[in-house]
């Protein structure tokens, strides 16, 4: 949830591509970056590119990249998934 909260304010995130789901939230180059778990050099490289300004993000569009996680849409999609399974 911390990643989503940061992105809701237009802050790009750098995260390891672990099994807990960052890949579902982070779209590399658009709202952040992913690196292989344990690949500290990759993490440092992403961080340095952001700090140096080599990589620039459009902070105003980052919140829109996570709209599907907002409560209203999330619960609507969740309900639709449940009802579609019940109808089968």
From TrEMBL:
Pfam families: Glycos_transf_1. Keywords: Glycosyltransferase, Transferase. Transmembrane segments: none annotated. It comes from the Bacteria. Residues 1-63 form the Glycosyl transferase family domain. Coiled coil: none annotated. GO terms for molecular function: glycosyltransferase activity. This is UDP-D-galactose:(Glucosyl)lipopolysaccharide-1, 6-D-galactosyltransferase. It comes from Salmonella enterica I. The lineage of its organism: Bacteria, Pseudomonadati, Pseudomonadota, Gammaproteobacteria, Enterobacterales.
């Amino acid at each position: 949830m911390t990643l989503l909260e940061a992105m809701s304010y237009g802050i790009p995130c750098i995260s390891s591509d672990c099994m807990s789901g960052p890949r579902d939230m982070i779209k590399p180059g658009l709202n952040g970056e992913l690196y292989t778990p344990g690949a500290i050099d990759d993490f440092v490289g992403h961080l340095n590119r952001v700090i140096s300004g080599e990589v620039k993000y459009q902070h105003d569009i980052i919140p829109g990249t996570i709209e599907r996680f907002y409560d209203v849409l999330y619960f609507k999609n969740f309900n639709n998934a449940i009802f579609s399974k019940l109808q089968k």
